[in-house]
Amino acid sequence: MKWHIALGTIALIVLVALLTLTAVNESARMEKFSQAFESRQVEAGASLFQNNCRTCHGPQGEGIPGVAPSINAVDLFNGERLAAIGFSGTLSDYLKGVIASGRPVPSAGTSYPQRMPTWGQEFGGPLRQDQIEGLVGFILNWEDRALAADAGGAVSVSENVPVGVDISISLPEGDPKAGATLAQSSRVGCSACHELASVGPAWAPAAGQPGIGERAAQRLTQADYAGNADTPEQYLLESIVNANAYVVAGYAEGLMPGDFANRLSGQEAADLIAYMLTLR
Hints:
Elements: H1 2-52, H2 54-57, H3 74-77, H4 80-84, H5 91-101, H6 129-140, H7 143-151, H8 176-183, H9 190-194, H10 212-219, H11 232-241, H12 260-263, H13 266-278
């Protein structure tokens, strides 16, 4: 009988230890889960923004004069815009409300020809609540960049949010191996046009021509270069997120997909650039 008691006591001790270990690790596990969820939400929001919002608000929310205001703006993120209309809630709540219900009445001092439509299903629009939240998450990921730029500081981009079109940002450290894998994947398809076929300029060195890693530096000194890059890394980022800023002679404008700024994260862009720089 005593061995039953001893066995039960040991089992209880083991159970308590396992529960304690689980509790200790739960906070870190939930933090990783939350980060992964938020990253996926921002990616989904980027796709929704690309399909529904960019025609009025611009590809990076910078606004289009005479069409719609900027939503990638300092006065939105620092609270000035909310204070001007007397909104005392959070920016997240404000964005959810405006996107879901629209803006049937224009703000004072504005004269945009079209009113903001309703997007939330509860107001007769096409988007579910989780899709509205994805859009809000995508818009909020501009906050640090906008405020840093206003303060004159170095602008960096998070590893897991869309990289955007600003080629002066500070990217995370790139991994050439990860970049090679991404380039060869069907998700971006770089290799199909730049390595396996001649749809776009070849990346690898061939016939006396250096690879893209060396040509990136040479582009900056060419008389016909019309882009805005100051470094090889900036040139390669520009060629990814704003390919029409400079089109290589002999190739047509518009061959490159125009949505990589929203489809690629900062880390993915850094990885692709690191890989391209190895092709010399």
